[in-house]
Amino acid sequence: MFKREKRNVVYATQTGQVLPIEKISDSVFAKKVLGDGVFIIPDNEKVYAPITGRLRVVSDSKHAYGIVGQDGIELLVHIGIDSVDLNGEGFKSYVNVGDKVKAGDLLCEIDFQVFEKANISTETAIVIANNERFKIIERNEMPTVAGITEIFRYEQI
Questions:
Q1: What value, to the nearest 5°, has the Cα angle with vertex 42 and ends 52 and 39?
Q2: Per-residue model confidence as pLDDT tens digits over 38-65
Q3: How far apart are the C-alpha atoms of 154 and 138, rounded to whole Å?
Q4: Which residues are catalytic?
Q5: Sheet containing 106-110: which strands, arranged edge to edge?
Q6: Among 63, 74, 67, which Cα is nearest to 114's?
Q7: Disulfide engineering: 127 pairs with which of 37, 73, 74, 114, CB 3.0-4.6 Å?
Q8: pTM: predicted TM-score of the whole model, two decimal places
Q9: DSSP H or E segment with residue 115
Q10: The CATH number fitting domain 9-156, selected from 2.60.40.10, 3.30.420.40, 3.20.20.70, 2.70.70.10
Q11: At residue 123, what are phi and psi to the nearest 5 degrees?
């Protein structure tokens, strides 16, 4: 999807609004228990890889994806709040554990109607899972982003 990917950059997983992780409706993410990052309130049902790397985790319920970047950064893409309760309903995944992905590759699609019917938020968290090794040095919080937009830059500690 990208002509040239930049180093130490995480791209938006979806189009929508980017906000600091502290403002997400889930207290575990808001308190950075799972790592520092941002979240997106999506306006599109497609979810893209935020970095180039290998899929370490694809949850059985298809709501969470763990990607290890080429430099060792581990990102968690967690789609929805309490979306594990959907047991995979409303998700169509295109990747499996072990797959290599490039930034901008399609990970999955979600069905907003399923989320709405179950009264589940579509907020998508993108966090650094190994924050003992990497930290965010610049955030790009903005009203609307697309999948090719940088959402944060990081560096190794």
A1: 65
A2: 999 999 999 999 999 999 999 999 999 9
A3: 7
A4: 78
A5: 46-48, 106-110, 91-93
A6: 63
A7: 37
A8: 0.94
A9: helix 112-117
A10: 2.70.70.10
A11: -50, 130
